[in-house]
Amino acid sequence: MTEQYDVVIVGGGHNGLIAGTYLSKAGKRVLVVERAAMAGGLSQSDHVIPQAPDHMINTGTAELIHIRASPVMQELDLRSHGWKTVETDPMYAYLDPEGGSIAVFRDPRRTAEDIARFSKVDAKAYLEFVELIDGLMQFAGAMGKGDPGVRTARNYLDLAKVAIRNRALKDRLQLISTAPADQLAAEWFEHPATQALLLGIVAGAGPFDTDGNGIAYALFGLLHRVGVSKAVGGMRMFADVLLSAYAASGGQLMLNAEVEEIVIGDGAARGVRLKGDRMIEAGVVIATCDPITAARLATPGGLGRVTRTRLEYAPAHRANVGPSLINVASSKPFRLKRHQDLRTDGVDLNQAVGLIGSAEELRQALVQARRGQVPSAPVFSLSPMTNWDPTMAPQDQGVAYIYLPVFPVEVNDGWPRAKAPAADAIIARAADYYDGFDGELGRWFETCPDREARTSLTKGCVTHVDFGAQRTGAKRPAFGLGGPEPLAPGFFLGGAGIHPGGGVSGGPGRLVSKRVLDYLA
Ligand SMILES: Cc1cc2nc3c(=O)[nH]c(=O)nc-3n(C[C@H](O)[C@H](O)[C@H](O)COP(=O)(O)OP(=O)(O)OC[C@H]3O[C@@H](n4cnc5c(N)ncnc54)[C@H](O)[C@@H]3O)c2cc1C
């Protein structure tokens, strides 16, 4: 059986659906094929804990940040498709082992006031840091306009204007793009609590001791500019909104449809072959799975040797460090213990994502994870989901989302042996900070290999390709492959493995849709 489309998109994650919506709106016949039973990819939620069938669990993303700043919101009018989120402020709170806390508010001055409770010097430095990051954001904004692989006179002009405006920051901006985030935290801030706050947040972008990943601090710029929201009802809301926008544009979706081959014949993309040998023909194929998977799926010999090799070498959790996730469902709500009691200024830390782990523990965890060891002192962020969205569990019950940014991908002992004790140690530490764990009904713990098995994502890498200054813009996923040209005629990448990268921004989906429209024109 053969069907024909203009464009077939491999993967119904958020970028696949967004690319599909732009292309259908432009009048193309589009089919998204998704191997799973639900669309959404790493941005989904479900009732995955058998002992707690009414607790909604985010199985990947929990925080909506990048998409709030993305033109996709307006261009696809996502709000009209049932978009429902709740904003949190404070957004994060570093929870010091001694009971103190530093909250991160939308307003950087309020954040600095919180830091001042630990160090006045750091409070002043934080405001300078935010100004510097704002300069970085201006550069990113100027470079991110249009296609990073196509530099126009207008781009150069914009960049020149930003460079002139920020000339006083020139040296420090260059440092950010070359230095490790850890070095910068240690250079700029004297107090371990401030360093822990910075590293605890930036750890989500990957190993913070890698040269060039200081640019991950751009996240602070986004936090202060646009803030954070959570999807009401879990990330299923987000997936449903995208599905609704896609369906309204006339796009077609096929679930439980695993692509076994991206067919490239006579030098150009011909379509995809699904498991079960069903063939779908299309002159354009967009792969929104990770680039290594895309290379594996391509017809042998269909890609040039250099292209294929560069895709295969795109790093995915190369340092053996990647995030694991534990969700705990409880018959009780999750509330902070002493940290809230010690706040006398009325700030509700239970509305924030709690950051647990000192700067030294974060550094030690990185060393241990690299060596294939479970960190002896677990470091994580804890999102008490039901504190801002009680609909995620039955009344007065709780869901805690525990994100472990610095965790081994593979462990020397093997996960079958290491997993249960690791979870027990993590939850025991979380229970030192939050009440509610004594009502545990069940837990859902996904390591990187578990994620790979569930989603077929190489090494379970959440950003598809590791984040870093050398893998941005036209250098993502690899040097020479991040421009508008297809990998082979008609064959494009369109997921988190291309610019602007991982996270929920819709940027890759939007970018590839423009590239494909140009190609078809
Ligand atoms: C635990 C975790 C926490 C995260 N937290 C955040 C956060 O708080 N904020 C944030 O912004 N980002 C977060 N992220 C990152 C973010 O979720 C991803 O970067 C983003 O969702 C990637 O979207 P995508 O559409 O590019 O790819 P994906 O979501 O990976 O979608 C790719 C799709 O392709 C499908 N597919 C793969 N192979 C095939 C095949 N052979 N045939 C058919 N379909 C196939 C997959 O099933 C999948 O649905 C998190 C990720 C994880 C895992």
The percentage of residues in β strands lies in 15-25%
The largest pleated sheet is described as:
7 strands, mixed
Tell me the number of strands: 20
The CATH architecture designation of the domain at 2-46 and 68-84 and 234-314 and 465-520 is 3-Layer(bba) Sandwich
Indicate the structural class.
alpha/beta
pLDDT < 50 stretches: none
Structure ligands:
flavin-adenine dinucleotide
Average pLDDT confidence is: 96
Helix content: 25-40%
Give the CATH H-level superfamily of the domain at 2-46 and 68-84 and 234-314 and 465-520.
Answer: FAD/NAD(P)-binding domain
- The N- to C-terminal Cα distance equals 29 Å
What is Rg?
22 Å
Q: What is the highest CATH level, the class of the domain at 2-46 and 68-84 and 234-314 and 465-520? A: Alpha Beta
Count of DSSP-assigned helices? 17
CATH topology call of the domain at 2-46 and 68-84 and 234-314 and 465-520:
FAD/NAD(P)-binding domain
* Spatial shape: globular
